[in-house]
Amino acid sequence: MSSEFGKLLRVSVFGQSHGTAIGVIMDGLPAGEAIDREILGAFLARRKPGNSLLSTQRRETDAPIFLSGLEEGVTCGAPLCAVIENRDQRSADYAKLTDIPRPGHADYTAWAKWKGQADLRGGGHFSGRLTAPLCIAGGIAKQILARKGIFVGAHLLSVGQETDAPFPLFPTAELLESMGKKPFPVLDDKAGERMEKAILEARQEGDSLGGVIQCAAIGLPAGLGEPMFGGVENRLAAALFGIPAIKGVEFGAGFAAARLRGSENNDPFLWEGGRVTAASNHAGGILGGITSGMPLVLQAAVKPTPSISRPQQTVSLSRKEGAELEIHGRHDPCIAHRAVPVVEAVTALVLLDMRLEGNHGTF
Amino acid sequence: MSSEFGKLLRVSVFGQSHGTAIGVIMDGLPAGEAIDREILGAFLARRKPGNSLLSTQRRETDAPIFLSGLEEGVTCGAPLCAVIENRDQRSADYAKLTDIPRPGHADYTAWAKWKGQADLRGGGHFSGRLTAPLCIAGGIAKQILARKGIFVGAHLLSVGQETDAPFPLFPTAELLESMGKKPFPVLDDKAGERMEKAILEARQEGDSLGGVIQCAAIGLPAGLGEPMFGGVENRLAAALFGIPAIKGVEFGAGFAAARLRGSENNDPFLWEGGRVTAASNHAGGILGGITSGMPLVLQAAVKPTPSISRPQQTVSLSRKEGAELEIHGRHDPCIAHRAVPVVEAVTALVLLDMRLEGNHGTF
Amino acid sequence: MSSEFGKLLRVSVFGQSHGTAIGVIMDGLPAGEAIDREILGAFLARRKPGNSLLSTQRRETDAPIFLSGLEEGVTCGAPLCAVIENRDQRSADYAKLTDIPRPGHADYTAWAKWKGQADLRGGGHFSGRLTAPLCIAGGIAKQILARKGIFVGAHLLSVGQETDAPFPLFPTAELLESMGKKPFPVLDDKAGERMEKAILEARQEGDSLGGVIQCAAIGLPAGLGEPMFGGVENRLAAALFGIPAIKGVEFGAGFAAARLRGSENNDPFLWEGGRVTAASNHAGGILGGITSGMPLVLQAAVKPTPSISRPQQTVSLSRKEGAELEIHGRHDPCIAHRAVPVVEAVTALVLLDMRLEGNHGTF
Amino acid sequence: MSSEFGKLLRVSVFGQSHGTAIGVIMDGLPAGEAIDREILGAFLARRKPGNSLLSTQRRETDAPIFLSGLEEGVTCGAPLCAVIENRDQRSADYAKLTDIPRPGHADYTAWAKWKGQADLRGGGHFSGRLTAPLCIAGGIAKQILARKGIFVGAHLLSVGQETDAPFPLFPTAELLESMGKKPFPVLDDKAGERMEKAILEARQEGDSLGGVIQCAAIGLPAGLGEPMFGGVENRLAAALFGIPAIKGVEFGAGFAAARLRGSENNDPFLWEGGRVTAASNHAGGILGGITSGMPLVLQAAVKPTPSISRPQQTVSLSRKEGAELEIHGRHDPCIAHRAVPVVEAVTALVLLDMRLEGNHGTF
Q: In terms of CB atoms within 10 Å, which of C188, D185, D201, D353 comes out highest?
């Protein structure tokens, strides 16, 4: 099992960056759900490159073709398969990468795993391009969740040294949805401008930046998730680390909680509006792996894009010695902003899976 | 699925803090592995409370009783079941917790999940006491891994505001093993003294502290793990979030990588000693979810113990109104140091599972 | 994964025939379900040996001890662990079985799997004694299903050459329950007498008999199960083949359907009593892997007990040559009648798991 | 989970009989395996309809298009996706099937599951057409297994009342391979002629026939499979019941074993040619769920095709009353012969998965 996740809703991604087509299967999707292609297209546009100098100049056409699972635009219960054709299947830019692994990429580990049977890029399956089918699946999940009053949204909490404001204690559906409508998904547009400037600077220097994405979900009932290893955190983390370049996942206060005292970190419960709520949300809406009904909040750390144009120290696997590598071609100086919808997509898929499973704590 | 994890090696934990017994099944353990009970006992002693004022004063007897899976001290291939009897099954300290959920605990979420059918503690299954059987399983995994040259060790990277030095670039087996022999698992004993002092201060103030645990594994071959959702990071994170109080997991530079530039974060490959190695390890030994042969390094954030003796704001679920809660009894002012062997245990279990699966990249 | 099955309800069996204790974990059991120990004890008594000359003369005490998962006799949501102590842990009868594999047993295959690390019986994990914890789990599942109007019952359809009548088209809950109250579970007591006589004859001849068990479940809603590989048949068969000695599983007319014509085998739908029903049930209540609302009917073939007292041809694994084996001691001349409650147990566990999952065809 | 199976090798099928395309993902395939398209094409041709009057007259073009997973005809480690385009996407023959469920089909159960959201055929996902992608995957698995000396072959053991000879005790690779080269896959061609005649007769009468398929695999090492629920039988049965129309699965003597005595059914072990073998194979090569090294032998029962042209009794779901149905169009009077390669395909996929997992009984 590798390019799959999920329990009742199974998501399986396939494709290589430079193959015929890439795609996704969603198996276990409920029937009777209309898919709005316009909303889906707008969602997919958010991760597309080529929007500006902030991203790679490669143009992708991410219009999904649905091979199965729909009857007149509505899910029919059978597995849904959507594919995206690759226009630009084999680029000369990658030709020299069969012997010299790029630092920070999976070239060397793919070579070790597949005994050099595949090219250095593991057939290109590690490409960020594979997040496009993930977004198709996640975009569909978001539409279905929204009908149940569950909204998922994310923004850039930081890029390099620049930071955005965190989500408020109770983000509204409007706030979460608005992130997707901005060209640069931040709460504080001034911070966004500083981030954009930092990315352009890194680009000019042939370098790259990373960032932190904050994602929230509202409308989840209390009681979702299982104790210990079947909790919401376990399942979200397991899936989120499947997004290329993610190197850390935390919930609520996360690593910062480790520096707080119990009296600061514990969220006081309140009885408000006929239900239990809390005065703070250091727990990120999850206690003991189970949702509390407070907003679910998580952060994911995106490392700086490993593809940089500066000369780098590496090795030649054939000559068994050190080598220097200079990568030319089209690269993203930062992928954190493009990864924002991907984090939303994966979060939505896990939450839909858990919501389908329901709270079977009692029968 | 909830209190279980693993693929070829399945680990299933059962028990409640105040029930008859707690225990663990290991299903899929290879046959022919001798278990050294003395080494296992020393490992279990590391998480035991009652060692000092730094922990709860409750005494536990964690001597495991093996119900199955061994023939004359050697694994026989059948599922191994080990249990620990609870001496002290029902404490008056917890008697009043049937209506008023403790902030920061799973009391309320367990109530929401099980519709109040269980007591507020979900039958006590969320207890840190359940980490004892996890350590039995993990201690066994560590012994088996060591025979293959794989060593797992962890230390406290921080407690509250106090920080230890990180592991060196290439931690040795001796260094990793030495952590388990110290009364307080840190690299820099001066830092350890500051941490202990901080914990005692928090205790006197009726408060608690969290911390960050750093865990490393050496001796792993390159090529373990599957792309995307079956990677080493996915599987480790999924299991580590099963340890109570863990709120964040990161690999290598993790969240710090998000503040680095690509030129800083990329680990230059080197050809040394007839093999590929690297000049730095921001990747934590994992690229594209697959091991690189460099040491695997991860950090896990432990929140401050939610049980504090200060009065706290909460609610009465029966009266449907706010309430104040003061918890008396035996509490850990910090569990981060006791969680160090638990993080080792879970890491060892996941790595043994992956190592059993092997690198089936080629046939 | 080996001694486990289930999706939302995970059942994990452990123990060896001659170890300290055997037992079972049920993880994912809904909270709030009272367990009637008397009914459970009566269910367990049905598989117990030593009732008559029809079974082995070995006495077992199958009183389950609940280590976790219950609060005052009611499930609490935490994993339930129940164990049975082995009184009689190491029998001299088995002493000589370390070199000479018994024909028809797993001795040789366990030796091949575990490279001779375990004794020839794979640590005794293949023993029919392990069906006792399965029956504890299944007995609990039956009680919970009955509260939802789902009843599971089984009878001996044949023993050797003797056959019972099949279940009627619409077995009632009373009929299904009545099977458990008979000393010999058949619909036609005359057939039962012939079966008992045949078993006693085989016993006198130092030989053994097999049989076919028919199991039915009523009260299932239409729409349970997933297409293709997640169907009710797939999941039931996967679990039923875990019962030692089961060599065939069929649904409805099963193998007999292969000899019918479509016009005979198709079950005509009827509209009766405000709902869809059928004039026959060759499908065994399952079409396309999904329940139709008709009674679920399956048959499982039990091979003759391999332990016979006649001399048998086998090999010596150490001397690498042929050998003759004569097994003395206590053996069942037939286990088919004792396997009847085991088939019920496994069927009930799978159905409870599927029922908990529900029909998530729509959201 | 529904249209998927496998552990290390995951197979996921998608598509509807009358959608844009149908296909399959194989995730976990080892890298470096060349796929011979000619051999694959010949394998696919075996299940194709339209070869004679024995099958439906519908023409299918089953030429697979590989979207991912191959580099120059060799597997690269990334998930392999192959699709088949549907030429003939929406047939008028099916137009009237939205209200009146066909007896013996999944129409009614799909309606019950998906609450009528899909058409009566669950979007056509239950179609036998979906066995084409299964055969692509299985044909690839067969090629990889053959390189390891493992051969899988099947024949028609019976059609209606006509029976073929069973496989000999030790079928050779040549014998197994030869079945695929015959227009009608039987050992005894005279029996085959009788079967063909019976099918044509059923066709003329507007009726249909079922059959039994016997499948064997040779070259498997002893020691594959896990005890109890992870055995070879469990996993093969779970997958085989995913083939439409399969209603029974048995191993070795199967249901016939239930009529034998232990002294007849036990397979005497022999020491021959430096290894353990057996004088008979009632166990079908599996003892305790684990392979013995003897040929693996199983039988699968295929029900008569439910699509018959005779008038049948059914209901109108909208009018909530009885109805009569007459189905016109292109139907298979028997699918058992076309299901022969499908049984081989699924068997090969499960065996490749288990072989990749290897015998991890010891470390």
A: D185
CA–CA min distance C146, chain D (Å): 22
Chain A residue with CA closest to C31: the answer is: A362
Partner residue opposite C356 with nearest CB, options A7, A31, A360: A360
| pLDDT at D93 > cutoff 60 | no
Contact C332/D86 with Cβ under 8 angstroms? no
What ipTM was reported for this prediction? Answer: 0.96
Q: In 3D, which of B298, B184, B297 has the Cα closest to residue B243?
A: B298
Contact check, Cβ <8 Å, D239/C237: no
Kindly report, residue by residue over C333-361, the tens digit of the pLDDT.
999 999 999 999 999 999 999 999 988 88
- Residue A248, strand partner residues: A301, B250
Chain A residues closer than 8 Å to D79 by CB: 2-3, 12-15, 125
How far apart, in whole angstroms, are the C-alpha atoms of residue B141 and residue B130? 17
User: What pLDDT digit, counting tens, does each position of A331-352 carry?
Assistant: 789 999 999 999 999 999 999 9
What is the pLDDT, as a whole number, of residue B88? 61
Q: Which amino acid is at D220?
A: L
Closest by alpha carbon to C351, among C177, C170, C152?
Answer: C152
pLDDT band for position A92 (cuts 50, 70, 90):
very low
Of B31, B68, B125, the CB nearest to C78: B125
Amino acid symbol at B273: G
Q: What is the pLDDT of residues C133-160, one digit of tens each?
A: 999 999 999 999 999 999 999 999 999 9
Spatial CA neighbour of B210 closest among B257, B243, B237: B243
Please provide the DSSP assignment of B212-280 as one string: EEEEEEE-PPTT-S-SGGGSHHHHHHHHHTTSTTEEEEEETTGGGGGGSBHHHHS--EEEETTEEEES-
Burial of A270 (0-12, 13-18, 19+ CB in 10 A): middle
d(CA C119, CA C124) in angstroms, rounded, equals 8
pTM listed for this prediction = 0.96
The residues with which C66 forms a beta bridge, in sequence order, are C82
Burial D57-94 (b: 16+ CB within 10 A, else e): ebebebebebbbbbbeeebbbbbbbbbbbbeeeeeeeb
Side chain identity, residue C245: A
Chains contacting B (3 or more CB pairs within 8 Å): A, C, D
Torsion sign, CA atoms B322, B327, B331, B332: positive
Interchain CB contacts (distance < 8 Å): A and C = 51
Across the interface, whether the CB atoms of D287 and C104 are under 8 A apart is answered yes
- φ, ψ of residue A154 to 5 degrees: the values are -145, 160
Instruction: Give the C-alpha distances (Å, rounded to integers) separating C164 from B229, C168, C284.
Output: 52, 12, 18
C-alpha count within 13 angstroms, C-beta hemisphere, residue B215: 26
pLDDT tens for chain B, 363 residues long, are 589 999 999 999 999 887 889 999 999 999 999 999 999 999 999 998 755 667 665 555 668 999 999 988 999 999 999 999 987 655 544 544 678 999 999 999 999 998 877 666 655 788 889 999 999 999 999 999 999 999 999 999 999 999 999 999 999 999 999 999 998 999 999 999 999 999 999 999 999 999 999 999 999 999 999 999 999 999 999 999 999 999 999 999 999 999 999 999 999 999 999 999 999 999 999 999 999 999 999 999 999 999 999 999 999 999 999 999 998 877 889 999 999 999 999 999 999 999 999 887 888
Rg of chain A's alpha carbons, rounded to an integer?
21
Count of residues in chain C: 363
Beta bridge partners of A324: A313
The sign one gets for the Cα dihedral C36, C37, C41, C42 is negative
